[in-house]
Design goal:
Elements: E1 2-5, H1 10-21, H2 25-47, E2 52-56, H3 60-74, E3 79-83, H4 91-102, E4 108-109, E5 122-126, H5 138-154, E6 157-161, E7 183-187, E8 190-191, H6 192-195, E9 205-209, E10 224-227, E11 250-254, H7 262-273, E12 278-283, H8 288-294, E13 299-302, H9 307-313, E14 316-319, H10 327-339, E15 343-345, H11 348-355, E16 367-369, H12 373-379, H13 384-389, H14 391-402, E17 405-408, E18 414-416, E19 420-423, H15 436-451, H16 454-480, H17 483-499
Parallel strand pairs: 1-8, 2-3, 2-5, 3-4, 5-6, 6-7, 7-9, 10-19, 11-12, 11-14, 12-13, 14-15, 15-16, 16-17
Antiparallel strand pairs: 1-10, 17-18, 18-19
Helix pairs in contact: 2-3, 3-4, 7-15, 7-17, 11-12, 15-16, 16-17
Length: about 500
């Protein structure tokens, strides 16, 4: 599990490490520069014999760039520095400049027109860093656009220090224009702006560099942000020999309608393949025969049977895949909410909430909601554009009002509770296909029972679901990836986890 912080909080982390722990700022800067240089030097040795260009602003990100320039210079590699700032320089910047000049380095340029951008295989971005809070304009914008054009034209390898210049470190918004980097060396922890769209599209590979920042500094605020990596599959719930089918949940899936059985199938199969003990699908009677044929392990019950008894039977209830928005569907959803049992509300369950807003008052911490952006816009009575413009705030406001665990599905899905935010990095564009969300709902149902904690269950389910998509893409490609392939990948993924 990797921590994340908003880019704007890095000043507090730095200040705590320097003032409270006593690590000098110059030490942190040297470590930041060296960890970046170490990787870049390896790349350079394999790929180039031409000069390196370092682009710097006048702040501490620029000072990092100057330190990297020194390391290239001392290693015998020709390096040039393009200084874009015309104003006041930071104390650290001036110190790094003095060191360079004392070593005899004199390859400074102060005008973009002096530099032939076609002459470099490697450029390093030290212009703004995470402190950017305004639109990029003037000579900075001119330089960013010119460097991007050189990368596109000449295949230049572009590396960013901490964050590509032009990105907002908190939201990932593009502040006018942004450098399109191949790799980003971010210091200490991930920044939210590196993980959210559109920012993550401009970072390339993100390398988190350990530079000695104080771990306690990340606890300066109440909110915890994190992301999973592949090694975190160790956190997957364990199956013990001394257990039985009841140990892994009784998952009741309220899904399917008179004209749709596929969603119920995908959700039910995913619940079983992710380890569910017993799965019962409650659906209109015309779906029973085909579901019994497709999932003989499942209990298939119909609307003619007492739903109150089914609720008593269940340990977790999944509501919504292919359900429709009939009066009957609304009544069944209301019964689930009144029972206050652990539940996952997806698809038409969410649409019913947005159409019958009095039901929203019945939500609480027992519920996991899984809207995509369109469903989220309907739940909040706003537009997709408004939500995408401030994704984290929209999600946090909804959670504050409802106390649910929110899974906001997007190209970078979020899992949010009142004091925790998970940002998912697994998954791909091929998962934008019918049935993909139904598979997630089934995984969530099983994981909710097995973890008990809805936030942990939701984060791990979203991560595993994305990994299934990544495995499926490798085999079938993003154009041909289908929900059935996610089920296949789910089996293979969990089998590999068990073996390892």
């Amino acid at each position: 599990m990797k921590r994340i912080i908003p880019g704007s909080k890095m000043k507090e982390v730095d200040a705590y490490t320097i003032d409270q722990v006593g690590i000098p700022s110059l030490v942190l800067m040297e470590r930041a520069a060296y960890t970046s240089f170490f990787y870049l030097h390896q790349w350079y040795e394999k790929n180039s014999q031409r000069p390196v260009l370092i682009l710097v602003g006048g702040g501490n990100n620029g000072a990092d760039g100057l330190a990297i320039a020194r390391m290239f210079f001392l290693s015998g590699i020709q390096v040039h520095v393009l200084v874009l700032s015309e104003g006041k320089k930071s104390e650290q910047w001036l110190r790094q400049e003095d060191i360079l000049k004392n070593l005899g380095f004199d390859s400074f340029y102060y005008n973009l027109k002096e530099v032939n951008l076609s002459a470099y295989d490697l450029m390093v971005d030290g212009i703004f860093g995470v402190g950017l809070s305004r639109q990029v304009e003037g000579r900075y914008a001119e330089a960013i656009l010119a460097v991007n054009d050189a990368k596109k034209t000449y295949g230049t390898y572009l590396a960013a220090i901490d964050i590509p210049s032009g990105l907002d470190g908190d939201s990932g918004k593009v502040m006018g224009c942004v450098l399109d980097c191949d790799i980003t060396f971010t210091m200490g922890v991930y920044k939210t702006g590196l993980l959210l769209h559109p920012g993550c599209q401009y970072c390339g590979k993100v390398v988190v560099c350990e530079i000695g920042l104080a771990p306690k500094a990340y606890d300066l605020w109440d909110e915890t942000l994190y992301t999973y990596e592949e090694k975190d599959l160790d956190l997957l719930y364990k199956r013990s020999e001394d257990t039985n089918k009841g140990s892994y949940g009784k998952i009741l899936i309220l899904a399917g309608s008179e004209t749709m059985f596929g969603a119920a199938y995908f959700s039910g199969m995913a619940a079983y393949l992710s380890g569910g003990g017993l799965v019962q699908i409650y659906t209109p009677k015309n779906n029973k025969e085909i579901l019994v044929d497709k999932i003989p392990e499942a209990i298939v019950s119909t609307y003619e049977e007492d739903f109150a008894e089914k609720i008593k039977w269940a340990s977790v209830i999944v509501v919504g895949p292919g359900l429709g928005k009939t009066k009957k569907a609304k009544e069944l959803l209301e019964m689930v909410l009144d029972a206050k049992k652990p539940c996952v509300i997806d698809a038409d369950g969410l649409n019913l909430l947005s159409e019958h807003r009095e039901l929203m008052k019945k939500l609480g911490p027992f519920a996991i909601l899984t809207p995509h952006l369109g469903e989220m816009a309907r739940l909040q009575n706003t537009s997709i554009k408004e939500i995408k413009g401030n994704l984290l705030k929209s999600a946090k406001d909804f959670v504050k009002d409802t106390s649910v665990t929110l899974v906001l599905k997007d190209s970078r899905s979020l899992v949010i509770t009142k004091n925790m935010i998970y940002i998912n990095q697994s998954g791909n564009e091929g998962m934008g296909t019918g049935g993909s969300g139904d598979v997630l709902s089934g995984i969530l149902g099983t994981f909710y029972h097995c973890y008990k904690d809805p936030q942990i269950a939701a984060a791990m389910a979203v991560y595993v679901h994305g990994l299934c998509g990544d495995l499926g893409k490798k085999k079938y490609g993003s154009y041909s990836l289908m929900a059935r392939h996610l089920l296949e990948s789910l089996k293979n993924l969990l089998d590999d986890v068990r073996k390892n």
